Amino acid sequence: MIKIAVLVSGGGTNLQALMDAENPFGRIELVIASRGGVHALERARSAGIPTRVVSRKKLGDAFAGKMLETLGEFRIGLVALAGYLTILPPEVVGAYAGRIVNIHPALLPSFGGKGFYGLKVHEAALARGVKVTGATVHLVTEEPDGGPILAQKAVPVLPGDTPQKLSERVMEQAEWELLPREVRKLCRNLEWSKWKA
Ligand code: GRF
User: Fold this and answer.
1) Checking phi first, is residue 81 left (phi over 0); if not, alpha (psi -120 to 50) or beta?
2) Global pTM value
3) Which of 72, 84, 108, 111 might form a disulfide with 7, Cβ 3.0–4.6 angstroms?
4) How far is the CA of 150 from the centre of ligand 1 (A)?
5) How far apart are CA 105 and CA 118, in angstroms?
6) From ligand 1's centre to the CA of 103, what distance in Å?
7) CATH classification at residue 34
8) Each residue of 115-168: pLDDT tens digit?
9) Which helix (H) or strand (E) holds 2?
């Protein structure tokens, strides 16, 4: 059974989708928030999942060490970034190479990379006038939103869409389906690779 840590920064709807999904290969053992007071922490607490706040702003250079210490304390084997806004430093990405997944609310490489997060992604998509957008699940490397793509799902942009309306459609129709599915697949593959001769 793979121990999963979910990293959050906001409302936690992607965390909720992971909590609600069936996953015979993995179990959410820890939720780490980039700052206190975010609703995602309430979601974890109400489900009895241990929580921690590890703030890059507060910890500065000690952030990487504290993150690795916390993940190690819970024997974490897979890290899922769910609406997480901190860029993970190379020491953390390196320690969990191939075992950190992120959900991005666009069809990467479009509207991805530095500065593209949350509603800014949908504002840019609407400003460009794309007729289709969507979500991407990818492995995390040192390049923001640059890692190998695991899954994508297209979502229509409709006349009169606001960034908020488009964000909700992308979450409902793509993010909340893709992230649980890809986390489950990665847990299965990690589990099986443990038993491979
Ligand atoms: C949303 O913009 C979502 O598209 C992105 O992170 C933001 C908040 O997600 N992945 P959540 O509700 O905190 O999971």
Assistant:
1) beta
2) 0.97
3) 84
4) 18
5) 8
6) 8
7) 3.40.50.170
8) 999 999 999 999 999 999 999 999 999 998 999 999 999 999 999 999 999 999
9) strand 2-8
Are the C-beta atoms of residues 57 and 19 closer than 8 Å to each other?
no
Give dist(CA 174, CA 36) in Å, integer: 27
Question: Domain range for residue 159?
Answer: 2-196
pLDDT digits (tens, 9 = 90+) for 66-78: 999 999 999 999 9
Q: Rounded to 5 degrees, what angle do the CA atoms 149, 26, 139 make? A: 15
Q: List, chain by chain if needed, residues with CB within 6 Å of any ligand 1 atom.
A: 8, 10-15, 40, 82-83, 103, 105, 118, 167, 171, 175
CA 192, CA 20: separation in Å to the nearest integer?
A: 23
Alpha-carbon torsion angle 169, 170, 173, 177, nearest 10:
-140
Q: Tokens standing for 195?
A: 């038993």
Angle between helices 13-20 and 176-195 (to 10 degrees): 50
Q: For residue 84, which atom of ligand 1 is closest to its CA? A: 6
pLDDT reading at 100 higher than 70: yes
Is 39 known to be catalytic?
no
- Band of residue 54 on the pLDDT scale cut at 50, 70, 90: very high
**Half-sphere exposure of residue 20: CA atoms within 13 angstroms, side-chain side:** 10
Burial of 79 (0-12, 13-18, 19+ CB in 10 A): buried
